[in-house]
Every structure is written in structure tokens, then in C-alpha cells.
Amino acid sequence: MPRPWLRWWVVMLLVGLLSACASGGSVRADQPMLPAASLPAPDSTTASGAYEGASDYRIGAQDLLNISVFGVEELTRDVRVNSNGHISLPLVGTVMAGGRTIPELESDLAKKYAEGYLQRPQVTVFVKEFTSQRITVEGAVKKPGIYPITGRTSLLQAIALAEGVDDRTADLGGIVVMRKVDGRKQAAVFDLRQVRKGLVEDPQLYGDDIVVVEQSGSKTAFRRFIESVPALGIFAWF
Predict the structure, then answer these.
(1) Residues 69, 125 within the same domain
(2) Candidate from 35-39, 44-48, 83-87, 211-215 with smallest mean pLDDT
(3) What residues have CB less than 8 Å from 194, skipping those under 6 apart?
(4) What tens digit of pLDDT does each residue of 94-137 get?
(5) CA 221, CA 218: separation in Å to the nearest integer?
(6) Are residues 166 and 233 in the same domain?
(7) What CATH number has the domain bearing residue 162?
(8) 10 Å Cβ neighbour count for 115?
(9) Is residue 212 part of a domain?
(10) For position 10, what pLDDT does the model report?
(11) Both 181 and 209 in a single domain?
């Protein structure tokens, strides 16, 4: 059963789209008209799975960080951010990482290592697992829920996290990915059969994405809208 907030989300989607299509049967001219596989990355992200070294990504609890100091292999290690946002490192001890951007943490660690230990240390921080980032998988899947992203994650992998589609009820041609891009909500419709065959690129997912697997034979307004725009594939609203 869809969660109330998701039903509200879908209703708002339909209100915006149907009102945009009411006069001419098409979305506004300023809305993106891209192939489904070209759904843009969300705000403030890059291509590393959830986020890829984006300067404004803020480290969260349970993220797995790889920290290295150029020329000092003994200080290179993987550390997990604890529930309080802290990490523990040799020489410098406990450091607050949660809530900081990657450049901020790199700068802070460089200053700490420079205080009596190293001369002009060059510190690099790489996020190996973005467990603070999550996606929602809803609809006709075996285990709907909210799942953490731990690195690069595709649509097929997200559906696998939900233990696959419900073979009795899932409409494989009605897979919708929703996200926020440039301050506007956007969505794209995918045919899972084409993705599985490699005819359509398996789209990458990002933190806060919502995946909805529509039920076969459903009579909802959402289903009717999906069937009305097979050639468009992607649509946007505000």
C-alpha cells in the first residue's frame, strides 16, 4: 500500500502535468524533452553512486571514508563515520567529520597533521560508501522500502534491493524514477524489459530518488498519464 506522502507526491505530479497539458496536449516549451535514459543527475551531485566528490556533499553518519596522506602510506586507511559523526585517526585522534564537506575535512585534517607531525601534508578524502544516502522503492515490488545507497547504484540494482518485482502485479513498462533537478521535480518512465535486454541504458540512481513500479491493469490517474506519454519518456513539474 503506497505511503500517504507518496500518494500526495504523485497527486501533485499529476496536477502539474495535466494542467500543463490541458491546452495543447503537451508539456510547456520550457520543460526538458529528453530521452528517458538522459534523466539528469539531481541537485549538487555527480556520478559516484550517490555523490562523487561534489564539493557541497556533506558527510553523514555511517559513510565509509578512505583517507590518505601523500607520501605517508602508514596513515592511509578506511574509517567509518560513527553515529555521532566522528572518525578516529592515528596521530590526530577523534575528528568531527559529519556535516562537513570533503574539502572542509581535507583542510581540517591537513591542519591537524601539520601541528607538530608533518610538513605541508596533502590529505585526500574519498567517500567509498554513501550509507547516509537513501532511495525509496515503492509499488509492485516484493519488499517496498527505503534503502541506503552504498556506491554506484542502478535501477536494476535498486529493484534487486527490494527483492525484485511482484511477478503477478508489476507492469514492467511502467517503472518511474522521480528526482529533483535544478530546483524542479522531474521523473522518467522506463520499460524494465528493455533495460534488462540492454536496449535502454540502466539508469543510475541517486540519494533521495523515488522508484515506483506501477501495477499492471491499474486504473489510476498515474497509470493513465504514463500511457499517454510513451514517446516523451521524461517530464518535469514544479
Answers:
(1) yes
(2) 44-48
(3) 200
(4) 999 998 989 999 999 999 999 988 999 999 999 888 776 789 99
(5) 9
(6) yes
(7) 3.10.560.10
(8) 10
(9) yes
(10) 52
(11) yes
Model pLDDT, residue 4: 54
Q: Taking a C-beta distance cutoff of 8 angstroms, is the pair 129, 73 a contact?
A: no
Domain membership of residue 56 (yes or no) is no
- Classify residue 42: in a domain, yes or no: yes
Among 129, 147, 177, give the residue marking a domain's end. 129
Distance CA 59, CA 127 (A): 8
Residues 6+ apart with CB under 8 A from 213: 137, 138, 139, 140, 141, 159, 165, 166, 170, 171, 174, 175
Lowest mean pLDDT among 81-90, 108-117, 213-222: 213-222
Do 143 and 28 sit in the same domain of this protein? yes
How far is Cα 47 from Cα 225, in angstroms, rounded to an integer?
30
Alpha helix (H) ranges present in 83-140? 102-114
Q: Nearest CA to 66 among 45, 49, 87?
A: 87
Q: Which amino acid is at 93?
A: G
Write out the residue range of the structural domain in which residue 78 sits: 64-129
- In terms of domains, do 171 and 233 share one? yes
Helices (H), the chain: 4-21, 102-114, 155-161, 192-197, 221-228
* Cell numbers linked to 121: 601534508
Residue 171's identity, in one-letter code, is: D
Determine the Cα–Cα distance for residues 135 and 144; give it in Å rounded to an integer. Answer: 11
Amino acid at 37: A
Residue 197 forms part of a structural domain: yes
76 beta partners: none
76 and 173 both lie in a single domain = no
Quick one: 43 and 115 in the same domain?
no
pLDDT of residue 140: 92
